[in-house]
Design brief:
This protein has 195 residues and is α/β, with parallel strands linked by helices. 38% of the residues lie in helices and 23% in strands.
C-alpha cells in the first residue's frame, strides 16, 4: 500500500525564488507536500519564505553535512521522499545520493553540458554565456550524482539571447524558465514515484 502524501525537502542557499514558486505550486495539494527547507546559510532568504509558509527549516554546517549522516535522520523524521535543489551550492555527499537514488534533482541556469561544473552558478553562468555571445541560453533540470552538473538530464528549455542582452537580462530570461518549468517537472517526477 502506498502512502497518501509524498513529501519534498528543498535544499537552498540563497534568496529562494525557486523555492517560493515550488511552495506556491504545491500549496493546497493533498498528494504532494513541501515539508522541509534545508539551508547551509543561517541568513538565507529562503528561511524567511519557509517561516512564512509554516514549513520546518534546518541549518546544516559543512561539517555536519559531509562528516556525519545526521541529515538522513532529519529527512527520515519528516518522511521525505524526494529532494529538490534550488540554488544549493554544495556538492551532494555520497550517503545522500545512495539513500535517495534518482530522487534528488537540481536546476542549472544554462543548457548543460555547456557552462556546468564547480563554480558555474548564478551570475557566473550568465556572464560566461554573454562572453561567448551565444544565441541561446536556458535551463537544465537533472538528477544529481556525485559530480557537479553531470547527472542525467530530465528536462531542458531554452530562451533566445539578443546581441544587446547583458548578463542581467540573460538572468531574467532564464529565471522565467526556471519558475515556469521547475515546479511542473517536480510534480511529474514526484507523482510518478512508487513508494
Amino acid at each position: 500500500m502506498s502512502k497518501s502524501v509524498k513529501n519534498i525537502a528543498i535544499l537552498a542557499s540563497g534568496a529562494g525564488s525557486n523555492a517560493q514558486k515550488i511552495i506556491d505550486y504545491f500549496s493546497g495539494r493533498r498528494d504532494i507536500s513541501v515539508r522541509l527547507i534545508v539551508s547551509n546559510k543561517q541568513d538565507a532568504g529562503v528561511l524567511n519564505i519557509a517561516r512564512a509558509a509554516a514549513i520546518d527549516t534546518l541549518i546544516v554546517t559543512r561539517n555536519s553535512f559531509y562528516s556525519s549522516t545526521d541529515l538522513l535522520a532529519e529527512l527520515d523524521k519528516h518522511k521525505i521522499d524526494f529532494i529538490v535543489l534550488a540554488g544549493f551550492l554544495w556538492l551532494i555527499p555520497p550517503y545522500l545520493i545512495q539513500q535517495y537514488p534518482d530522487r534528488i534533482i537540481n536546476i542549472h541556469p544554462a543548457l548543460l553540458p555547456k557552462y556546468g561544473g564547480k563554480g558555474m552558478y548564478g551570475h557566473f553562468v550568465h556572464e560566461a554565456v554573454h562572453l561567448a555571445k551565444d544565441a541561446y541560453s536556458g535551463i537544465t533540470i537533472h538528477f544529481v550524482n556525485e559530480k557537479y552538473d553531470e547527472g542525467s538530464i530530465v528536462f531542458q528549455d531554452r530562451c533566445e539571447i539578443l546581441p544587446s542582452d547583458q548578463p542581467e537580462d540573460i538572468a531574467k530570461k532564464v529565471q522565467i524558465l526556471e519558475h515556469t518549468h521547475y515546479p511542473m517537472v517536480i510534480d511529474q517526477l514526484v507523482s510518478a514515484l512508487t513508494l
